[in-house]
Design goal:
The complex is a heterotrimer of chains A (about 575), B (about 475) and C (about 450). With about 475 residues, chain B is α/β, with parallel strands linked by helices. Helix content of chain B is about 50%, strand content about 10%. The longest helix of chain B has 20 residues. The radius of gyration of chain B is 22 Å and the shape is globular. Chain C has 2 domains: about 280 residues, FAD/NAD(P)-binding domain, CATH 3.50.50; about 150 residues, no CATH class. In chain C, a hairpin with a 2-residue loop joins β9 and β10. The mean pLDDT of chain C is about 95. The chains are: A alpha+beta (about 575), B alpha/beta (about 475), C alpha/beta (about 450). Chains in contact: A-B, A-C, B-C.
């Protein structure tokens, strides 16, 4: 008791991570708690679009302006998390010309750089576009890796003295004398890194202020504090293709609707999305029609999508909020703006503020605003520098190196690794020798996997998010066991086994939605490898079986017999063919 | 009878369309729109308006083959079939070179890993892949891009590779003074100099140049001795049969005339095989344009195209349509056959050989060239001659001979090429006969180099058996 | 007809080869065509007959309606499988009624294995008993299997000799200590420990297994020492210091990753065993699998010896039927030209979803060569369950057949009189969880081949 910190931030998504970075950099003593891995919530389940603001240029100009501003900031401070793909708003013959003009004007009004190009130029830039695309507006959309971004924010926060706890679920908001004084959390294991089979503790953390940055879960946290926060979660599907059919963000230029965006992301591209309100942000249906809709509709823009391979689909939940009394029906109409709910002011409960709504692109701006608010509450004076200071990993780095000479790894793998590791590439890639590739699909070497394990413990999903291992064609079929083997250096066998199972099943979760064509063949091959050859499902270490070893074949000759020397007794070593025993 | 055919074999126009439209198709489109590509680009062709062009994705107009990675399910069957990976640990194998490397490429950094030059283009990976990943297409294209964009054009390596790739040019010059050329090319000090300066191994003997080329013989003979508009074949002799082993060409002519075919010998260039292996796609394209022009003319005259070298036939049937978009190239691909294959399909070869016999018993150690496998021909020779009286044909196993065209002709690869061929040499020694047999000229060179055996072509045996 | 045969077998895997040889032995002239290399090279080289009877019913009701975003898998959804089975034949009766073993009977399995034994001679073992063997694989668990190659012979789990598992830093397939730990956790009746040794580091990281095998085959120099000697020297120090439980002094046998040579594997193992003074065995791995490759070589030699004509590299792209529905000939695509291949009877052994004998899109699963009927739920989302290792409907997809392996249409009638179906293209078996893939291929291959020859 009585280790009172200044601020506790609940929620390890982009908002929470941005807030803790800002708080720590301004000199406050802060703790962040997250029930799962960082980006467990909405942040980790979106298509990675770094908005230029174009998508809001007609319907929500305030959001649009914020987006373009922050788009520029993030390119500066988060270089290794952002890919500057550019974006297109593409018009097909049946799309409204009026809306096209509105979009263009909207962009201009919001100071979003916008260039009109004709169909041919559009296809020159993005050759996989359908032939009958008439024209397009080019805008500075980008692609961001949300996990990398949050990890970098959290790392920066740690460097400035903050404490970050993942796999620590808030079980209670502590209230004394009608004021919020802290939280109670349940650790999965530890405190510290999550390790399978290590028991967790309950911990109470006292703080001068609590920030509820839990997005779609804000209502649930609010409930623990006895206040109403009416978040209206709405789900959307994301379908992941195996390769990049496009290298630019492709938007459909028409009023809001489903299936209107394709975002390139690392080696793949992501199709999005739908928008349906759900009750529980943790438990809602993942439906076939949503996946089919993505493919059918977006192949109007990019015909190759019809037959291309999908790896998996996943869903995310938007943390939409609207002030009480607004009463919108259609979730697509709810504002994407963010709201600071000071519970002292609105609910007579000092000590806590909830932040709801918003979007990833403007996370830093939201975080600044919240941190300003908290500093005011705590009477703390400090300047915000989060827009200028580069995130760890984004300091000057170049992807153009001689990877073979410097690290002994092949150039395409080196580039990808460096892109992920940013300025930490040198340090990590030279840390291990030999340094074989562990995940071949995504080019992840042992060094990177080990680095991930060091930060994440035995949670291989967290390692996956950091390194992209198991996120390629085989969806873990050929590498979960190899990734898990890296755990064996530090962790005992049962931990390795459970961690491997967890990753394999998690990969299956998303693949369920891609079970046709080549991914179905992949799933079957994975099943053959893991069940037949590795016998994971019948592993004596995992099932309850009383095995009488004596009932099985123990060999032709008695044990301890003639096998020293290698050839079976009394039998000639040919097989009747030309070459003898093989 | 009711018939069902799948889409793959509909007529040529549909195939053209399929190739540009479908990403499921094994082969991606070559370039369109006249932009310079690694393979030289092409004038715009008619395209399905509903389709799209996966071209010009990479700056400079190079082909984008990332979608080939969609077919790969990581089984590593290709890697385990790769003869180079077996002896060279610097070589990452077909899986990395093809689907993995391509999938990791980005628009703005599409550098190819330099190990692509260690691939010998034996194409065994194609045959091994259960998922029909277009492996050799991906390798050829990557290699072409690497040589064009990343290789230093003034380097010894590039110059040497260009010389080796353009064998036809060297052979043509040599054939002006064949005896002198044969002696000079095998003269110790010259070879040592070539080894040191160019990197062409002095251990190997240069093949003899014939005093009369096949085409000269054909001309002197007065061309075809059989006229038959219903049964016509256009002979693609290849550089080697013309300049070095015209007896193979002669055997072809005699055998086909025996079966009543009118043989045409159109103007032709190199099939491009050594150029693909060295990433010299522009050179290959130039020759392809010549070949397409003259061979399609013959096809229009009712002929099918016959090649006696299995690399030539594979090049015309597979690499041509995969890498080049020249008008008529699909027709050429569809109408090309290997010499014995054509007779098996169109004549009763089994019947013709039933009563055949040789004057004296002969034993052969047969090696199936890697390029023959992709055409389903690896068992052809053994099965065709199995029942001929007096012939013993033993297959010396399924390993690669190791020379892989120009691969074994590079000093830095010589050791490796001999290691790859080790198994084959052993089996040849173990076989009953001391005469080797194979359809591929460079395999023949390797077989001779490793054992000292005389090497013959199945067409020569067929000629003898039929008394043609 | 351009190319004619009595029996035409489509597919060059275990089932196709078995069918071809079996038909040839009945006196038929047999031709085998295969589009690509078989999946034998991907498999571990072990020949499994029946290792488990997996549960087909969950222990609690499965979710109704679409999958949900709930994060946690219910680990108790499915009961444990029945097994590992010591006797594969006994359990056949408890398999589903449409399982290939139920169609052709246990005797077909027995005969199929006997044929396999004949074809492989001394290269394979296990035929001296009906009982399965428990073989450790690189997953660290024991796999029940009916036949195993000589290279795996010394590693049987029922053999209680003390064991050292060897691993290498640059080989990522498994970690030796974790593997040993997992075997131990599985209750094996022998002392086992794992050690990492230095040998493969002499090669570049990411070297292919075939490279190491070749180096051992040829006994190449590794930094001045012949490879086999170098490998033995690397392992030797760990023979005694790796095991410190009980009073085991030094181990009696050593398990290696499956890379101990290709053509010279007997000699390689013999020399290692000699130098180490311990028995030596290989641990079967997934692809790339040397034991799988060796088996493929063996079987293709046997195919040639049986007088079967075969060619690879050519896909079947069509077929023509007679008035009565029998197949008259197949159309083979020879690089752009369709060539008719005639036959009295056809055996379809093209493989399942992995071997590409079954195709699929968002609408359904199909058999692409002869358009045979593939029974399946109409909804795609009924093809799977949530537990990756549960009873997955898609795992049992395939062509339905009668006891003579003639394909059945959607009405349950024989669709083509002169066609027989064998191997993974058949439906009804979950070969992955049953550990029955090879047995199904052998049993049905044998029957299909014989049946096809009888049609001639």
């Amino acid at each position: 008791m009585d280790n009172q910190v200044d601020v506790v931030v609940i929620g390890g998504g982009s908002t929470g991570c941005g807030v803790i970075r800002d708080l720590a950099r301004r000199g406050l003593d802060a703790v962040l708690v997250e029930k799962g891995n960082l980006t467990h919530g909405t942040t980790g389940r979106m298509h990675g679009l770094l908005h230029s603001g174009g998508r809001y240029a007609v319907s929500d100009k305030k959001s649009a302006r914020e987006c373009i501003e922050e788009n520029r900031v993030l390119r500066d401070i988060a270089g290794h998390c952002v890919e500057e793909t550019g974006g297109l708003f593409v018009k097909r013959p049946e799309d409204s010309e009026e809306y096209f003009q509105e979009k263009l004007e909207g962009c201009r009004e919001c100071d979003i750089p916008a260039e009109v190009i004709d169909g041919e130029e559009a296809r020159r830039r993005e050759p996989y576009l359908a032939r009958d695309v008439e024209k397009a507006i080019a805008v500075p959309d980008g692609a961001v890796d949300p996990f990398r971004l949050c990890v970098a924010n959290a790392a920066d926060a740690r460097e400035h003295g903050a404490r970050v706890e993942t796999h620590a679920e808030v079980t209670d908001i502590l209230i004394e004398d009608d004021e919020v004084v802290g939280i109670e959390i349940e650790h999965d294991s530890g405190p510290g890194k999550r390790v399978h089979h290590e028991p967790g503790e309950t911990e109470a953390i006292y703080a001068k202020y609590v920030v509820n940055a839990t997005g779609a879960w804000a209502g649930q946290i609010g409930e623990m504090a006895g206040v109403d926060v009416e978040v209206r979660p709405s789900k959307g599907v994301m379908t992941v293709m195996n390769t990049r059919q496009v290298d630019t963000v492709v938007n459909r230029c028409r009023p809001k609707g489903d299936a209107d965006i394709v975002v390139p992301h690392e080696t793949a591209c992501i199709l999005g999305t739908t928008d349906k309100e759900v009750g529980d942000p943790e438990d809602y249906p993942e439906e076939e029609w949503e996946v089919d809709l993505m493919i059918e509709t977006l192949s109007e823009l990019i015909p190759a999508l019809k037959d291309a391979r999908t790896l998996r689909s996943f869903w995310g939940v938007r943390p939409l909020y609207e002030p009480p009394g607004t009463g919108t029906d259609d979730p697509t109409d709810i504002t994407r703006d963010y709201f600071l709910l000071d519970h002292d002011v609105r609910d007579d409960l000092p000590g806590m503020t909830s932040i709801v709504g918003g979007k990833l692109t403007t996370y830093r701006m939201m975080a600044e605003s919240i941190t300003d608010h908290v500093c005011e509450k705590l009477d703390h004076e400090a300047e915000c520098d989060t827009a200028e200071a580069p995130l760890p990993g984004s300091e000057d780095f170049s992807v153009l190196r001689d990877y073979m000479e410097e690290f002994g790894i092949r150039s395409p793998i080196g580039r990808r690794s460096a892109q992920r590791l940013g300025s930490r590439a040198d340090e990590v890639l030279s840390s291990v020798d030999p340094n074989p590739v562990v995940c071949e699909c995504e080019g992840v070497t042992r060094a990177e996997v080990r680095d991930g394990i060091e930060q994440a413990g035995s949670d291989l999903n967290a390692v996956r998010l950091r390194t992209r291992a198991s996120m390629g064609n085989c969806q873990g079929g050929f590498c979960t066991h190899r990734i898990a083997s890296e755990l064996a250096q530090e962790y005992p066998e049962p931990v390795v086994r459970d961690a491997e199972d967890e990753l394999f099943q998690e990969r299956w979760k998303g693949q369920r939605h891609a079970l046709w064509g080549r991914q179905l063949s992949q799933a079957m091959l994975n099943r053959m490898l893991h069940a037949t050859t590795m016998n994971r499902d019948g592993d004596l270490a995992s099932i309850d079986a009383d095995v009488d070893f004596g009932a099985f074949d123990a060999g032709e000759t008695p044990a301890g017999g003639s096998d020293v020397g290698g050839s079976p007794t009394g039998v000639t070593a040919t097989d009747g063919g030309r070459d003898g025993d093989r | 009878m009711t018939g069902h055919t799948t889409d793959e074999t509909d007529d040529a126009v549909q195939r053209d369309v399929e190739r540009t439209a479908s990403s499921d198709d094994e082969r991606s489109a070559a370039t369109d729109g006249g932009v310079e590509s690694a393979s030289g680009g092409a004038p715009a062709a008619e395209l399905d308006p509903d389709a799209y062009d996966p071209v010009d994705v990479f700056p400079g107009g190079d082909l984008d083959l990332r979608e080939g990675a969609d077919s790969c399910y990581k089984c590593t069957s290709c890697d385990t079939s790769c003869p180079v990976a077996e002896v060279d640990d610097e070589f990452p194998g077909p899986k990395f070179q093809g689907p993995e490397q391509w999938r990791l490429k980005r628009k703005e950094d599409h550098d190819i890993d330099e190990s692509i030059t260690s691939c010998s283009n034996c194409m065994r990976c194609d045959e091994a892949c259960p998922s029909s990943v277009p492996l050799s297409q991906m390798h050829n294209e990557a290699r072409g891009q690497f040589v064009e964009e990343q290789m230093e054009k003034l380097s010894v390596e590039y110059i040497r590779n260009r010389i080796l790739a353009n064998y036809r040019t060297s052979a043509r010059l040599a054939s002006l003074t064949p005896r002198l050329a044969t002696v000079a090319m095998n003269f110790g000090p010259i070879r040592v100099a070539m080894d040191k300066l160019l990197g062409i191994p002095s251990e190997r003997d240069f093949p003899e140049f014939a005093t009369t080329t096949f085409r000269e013989w054909w001309r002197d003979r007065g061309g075809a001795k059989v006229t038959n508009p219903e049964k016509r074949v256009a002979y693609f002799h290849g550089c080697y049969s013309n300049y070095n082993t015209p007896e193979v060409g002669k055997a072809m002519v005699r055998v086909y005339e025996h079966f009543g075919y009118e043989v045409l010998v159109p103007k032709q260039g190199c099939s491009g095989t050594p150029m693909f292996a060295n990433g010299m796609l522009k050179d290959a394209r130039r020759h392809a344009e010549t070949n397409v022009e003259h061979l399609v003319e013959a096809i229009d005259d009712g002929a099918d195209v016959i090649a006696s070298c299995t690399s030539c036939s594979l090049s015309l049937r597979q690499e041509y349509p995969e890498l080049f978009d020249i008008h008529g190239i699909d027709d050429l691909a569809e109408h090309t056959f290997e010499a014995l294959e054509y007779l098996r399909i169109h004549e009763d070869l089994r019947g013709a050989l039933e009563d055949a016999s040789l004057d004296a018993n002969q034993s052969f150690a047969y090696h199936a060239p890697c390029h023959a496998r992709n055409q389903g021909l690896e068992r052809q020779a053994v099965e065709t001659f199995r029942d001929v009286d007096g012939v013993t044909m033993e297959d010396v196993g399924d390993s690669c001979s190791g020379i892989s065209g120009t691969y074994g002709w590079k000093s830095e690869k010589y050791e490796k090429s001999m290691q790859i061929g080790d198994d084959m040499f052993d089996h040849m020694e173990d076989a009953e006969g001391d005469v080797g047999m194979t359809e591929c000229p460079t395999c023949a060179m390797q077989m001779e180099h490793g054992t000292g055996y005389e090497i013959r072509h199945p067409l020569q045996l067929l000629e003898e058996a039929l008394d043609a | 007809m351009a190319i004619d045969s009595d029996v035409l077998v489509v597919g060059g895997g275990l089932a196709g080869i078995t069918a071809a040889i079996s038909a040839a032995r009945e006196g038929a002239h047999v031709r085998l065509v295969s589009h690509k290399a078989s999946t034998l090279a991907q498999a571990s080289g072990l020949i499994d007959a029946l290792g488990y009877v997996p549960p087909t019913e969950p222990s609690k009701p499965l979710r109704e309606g679409p999958p949900t975003a709930g994060r946690n898998l219910d680990r108790d959804e499915w009961p444990d499988p029945d097994g590992p089975l010591a006797d594969p034949y006994d359990a056949i009766a408890s398999l589903p009624a449409d399982h290939p073993y139920r169609l052709v009977g246990g005797d077909a399995l027995r005969e199929g294995l006997a044929l396999f034994d004949e074809l492989t001679g001394a290269a394979y073992h296990g035929g001296h008993t009906d009982q399965n063997a428990l073989v450790p694989t690189f997953g660290g668990s024991l796999k029940p299997t009916a036949r195993y190659p000589t290279s795996a012979k010394a590693g049987l789990a029922s053999d209680d000799r003390s064991t050292l598992i060897v691993g290498f830093r640059s080989l990522t397939e498994y970690d030796a200590r974790a593997l040993a730990g997992r075997l131990d956790a599985g209750g094996v009746p022998f002392e086992v420990a794992g050690a990492e040794v230095e040998f493969a580091e002499a090669f570049r990281a990411d070297t292919k297994i075939t490279r190491i095998a070749k180096a051992l085959d040829r006994d190449e120099q590794i930094e001045g020492t012949p490879a086999r000697e170098a490998l033995a020297a690397a392992v030797k120090p760990h023979l005694t210091d790796a095991i410190d439980q009980g009073d085991v002094g030094r181990v009696d046998r050593v398990g290696f990753p499956a890379f101990l040579g290709d053509d010279e594997s007997t000699a390689v193992r013999a020399e290692l065993a000699d130098r180490l003074g311990a028995a030596v065995f290989e641990i079967p791995m997934g692809p790339p699998s040397l034991p799988g490759l060796r088996l493929e070589d063996l079987l293709y030699d046997a195919l040639a010896d049986a007088g079967v004509s075969f060619e690879t590299g050519m896909p079947v792209v069509g077929y023509e039927t007679d008035e009565d529905g029998s197949i008259d000939h197949l159309l083979i695509d020879r690089k752009g030209t369709e060539v008719p291949y005639g036959a009295e009877s056809i055996v379809l052994a093209t493989g399942g979803l992995v071997g590409k004998g079954l195709d699929s899109d968002r609408e359904g699963v199909t058999e692409p060569v002869l358009d045979l009927h593939v029974p399946q739920p109409s909804e795609r989302y009924e093809w799977f369950v949530d537990d990756a290792y549960g009873e997955q409907p898609y795992a049992r997809f395939g062509v339905a057949a009668d006891e003579r392996l003639r394909p059945l249409d959607q009405d349950g009638e024989v669709s083509h009189d002169n066609v027989r179906v064998a191997g993974a293209v058949l439906g009804g078996a979950d070969v992955a969880r049953e550990k029955s893939a090879s047995g199904v291929s052998l049993a049905t291959g044998l029957v299909a081949g014989r049946e096809a020859a009888m049609e001639v």
